[in-house]
């Protein structure tokens, strides 16, 4: 072992003992802060003393021996601690942000994202939306950072500036309904039923703030009966959101009908402290220019997005090859 290793490992053991007590009080945050300190210590020693990577194997052995009842000191995890401290060098930032995220999710950020700005964006979204590890993987692989705020809408002309920005960020394009199964041809009512059958997953994909109100909500107008496909209430925006599902391509006539529904909801369902109702039209495909012209002139805020039922459809070809195969995933689990 390099000169100074024994002193270094003794000091590290004392630090772990101190942090271990804090971990009892605040398990996740304290553990991740401890991991950051370990990673930073490894970086400092390797940079200042020229230690090689084999030191990590010895560290793993010594730490396991000293703390037999603690997990997380495998060589693989120690390397992640080093990578973690390297990715987030600002300790104050670690304390207030990524220490609030589970370790498995932090590893996901390290493994799947190379750009610091994207890591930060997804870290903040994980905290904001409470993503678990699997949901975080899903959002990264379906490129949430490109989908969020990407719906074609008339929000800028139909809402005040602040409300418009919040509404834009609340809608995505496309929405990924992988949980409905691999369906090539589906009727609108069947799609609606599948979304209701998986309402929890549907709400997760819609995003934070959406609360389900009802399906096929009855409206009587001029002696005729109309039915809203899906009705939600957005808690943050303090608005009803009418969602209309279309199994086919966008048609300009869809907008007029949805606009009528919004007028009725505003008049019949909204309370005095509710804001103007939003409309979300989900279609299988659209031409952006046609949608923009179709929305022009309407005062009600309406967004139009695609829905897709296969994750891979939303991933660029150049990224698909970087996703692990089933064999690679199995190998990864076996090597844990």
CATH topology of the largest domain: Trna Endonuclease, Chain: A, domain 1
Q: Which range does the strand content fall in?
A: 5-15%
Number of helices: 17
Rg, rounded, reads: 25 Å
SSE pattern: HHHHHHHHHEHHEHHEEEHEHEHH
Counting DSSP E segments of at least 2 residues, the number of strands comes to 7
Structural class: alpha/beta
Helix percent reads: 40-55%
The low-confidence runs, each spanning 5 or more residues with pLDDT under 50, are 312-336
First-to-last CA distance: 26 Å
The count of domains is 2
> What would the average pLDDT be, to the nearest integer?
85
So, CATH architecture of the largest domain? 3-Layer(aba) Sandwich
Shape label: elongated
Tell me the major beta sheet.
7 strands, mixed
CATH class of the largest domain: Alpha Beta
Characterise the protein shown here.
This protein has 336 residues and is of the alpha/beta class. The protein has 2 domains: 5-100, no CATH class; 146-314, Trna Endonuclease, Chain: A, domain 1 (3-Layer(aba) Sandwich), CATH 3.40.1350.10. The chain has helices at residues 5-25, 27-49, 54-66, 75-87, 91-96, 103-112, 116-129, 133-141, 144-147, 155-158, 161-170, 188-197, 199-206, 253-268, 288-295, 317-320, 326-334; strands spanning 152-153, 175-176, 210-221, 224-234, 239-245, 278-283, 302-308. Strands 1, 2, 3, 4, 5, 6 and 7 form a 7-stranded mixed sheet that branches. A hairpin with a 2-residue loop joins strand 3 and strand 4.
